[in-house]
Amino acid sequence: MKKGFSLLFATLVFVSCGNDNDNDGFTPTAIEPLAAINENNEAELVAFLQTHYYDEAIKPIDEAPDKTATLWDDPRLGVKQVMVRPSEHNLETEGYTEDEIANGIAHNLYYFLVQEGVGNTVTTADSVYVQYAGRTLDLNLFDQVKQGGSWFDLARIQAPQQGFRGFAEGAALLKTASEIIDNADGTFSALDAGRGFFFFGSALGSYQNAQATIPAYGPMFFEIKVLARKITDHDGDGIPSYLEDLNQNGYLFDDNTDLEDEIENRRTILPNYFDPDDDGDGTPTACEISLGLDHLDPNECYDADGDGDCDRCD
Q1: Dist. CA 125–CA 168, nearest whole Å
Q2: Euclidean distance between CA atoms 169 and 124, whole angstroms
């Protein structure tokens, strides 16, 4: 699954057999609502945490023997609430409240930090070099990189209908290694790298889209070790992508200053972190910043010839 995970998951369409002759014998299968799946996944996650434990000397995560303290009882276990909107999984908004549509439904991401790390702080907008293993709650491995490492763009991996938002949210709770040492034998050592486990439901993963051995609506967990990170500027506008998270919720796809203008003029919908003209006024963000203009105000732009239209600048 590594290749598919690295390149982001494609959205799949699920159908089931039916008796509608006008639809060639097939009818679309309705996607389950967030609240119902969240309730089921939460029960599965809690049951897993209450019956499994961590022992590095034996297996990192395994079923707990009788009278052994479980992950649920371990003081290192924490929980972070992540708001998930119906739009992130292309769900119809019927049946959701206005608040749920705008702000989302709270989902628990459980984290178990073995070592926070002592290097650079990671954000969900960064690219990270990691070693990881992903498993379903029956402990079946569906993907891993343990030798060397692999780069992941955490911003893109959390994209709507692409998910693994839980992977990005978990990695951002860790810090990088303090130092990477070349062992001169083709291997390297990462000193004091952040490492932990992150358990989350399907709305922070692939939701209804079955992937490899991950079932539809299946919760999962990742073990992640963060070796290094790069601060990104995805649109090259001179603003690091993490600073384009205007509401500072770690999710880059709900920050779009010119969304209404993009819709009205049928332009490509681009969140600020991926939009070289954040306010849609025609003057690129980088130009406006270089001239001391407000790059989020479409009424303040560069007008080289004074004709009232915004212009580009070099």
Answers
A1: 9
A2: 6
Provide CATH code, domain 2-230. 3.10.50.40
CA 127 from centroid of its chain's CA atoms: 12
The C-alpha atoms of residue 221 and residue 21 are separated, in whole angstroms, by: 42
Tell me the per-residue pLDDT of 220-276, one tens digit each, with 9 for 90 and over: 999 999 999 999 999 999 999 999 999 999 999 999 999 999 899 999 999 999 999
Residues 30 and 166: beta-carbon distance below 8 Å: no
Please name every residue paired with 221 in a beta bridge, in sequence order, or none if there are none.
135, 199
Q: Edge-to-edge strands of the sheet including 105-115?
A: 77-84, 105-115, 194-200, 220-230, 127-136, 141-153
Collect all residues with Cβ–Cβ distance below 8 Å to 12 and sequence separation of at least 6: 209, 210
The residues, any chain, with a CB within 8 Å of residue 138's CB and separated by 6 or more, are: none
3 state SS of 276: coil
User: Hey, CA dihedral for 72, 75, 77, 79, is it positive or negative?
Assistant: positive
- pLDDT digit string (tens) for 91-109? 999 999 999 999 999 999 9
Locate the domains of the chain by residue range. Answer: 2-230, 234-314
Residue that the structure tokens 């206005």 belong to: 98
Token output for 42: 């939460």
Percent of the chain exceeding pLDDT 70 equals: 90
Q: Residue 4 — very low, low, confident or very high, per pLDDT cuts 50/70/90? A: very low
Asked whether the beta carbons of 45 and 108 are under 8 A apart, the reply is: yes
The pLDDT assigned to 29 comes to: 62
Pair 135, 220: CB distance under 8 Å: yes
Cα distance between residue 56 and residue 129, in whole Å: 22
| Strand 26-28 to 59-63 pairing | unpaired
Task: Tell the burial category of 66 from Cβ atoms under 10 Å away from its Cβ (0-12, 13-18, 19+).
Answer: exposed
Rounded-to-integer distance, Cα 274 and Cα 145, Å: 28
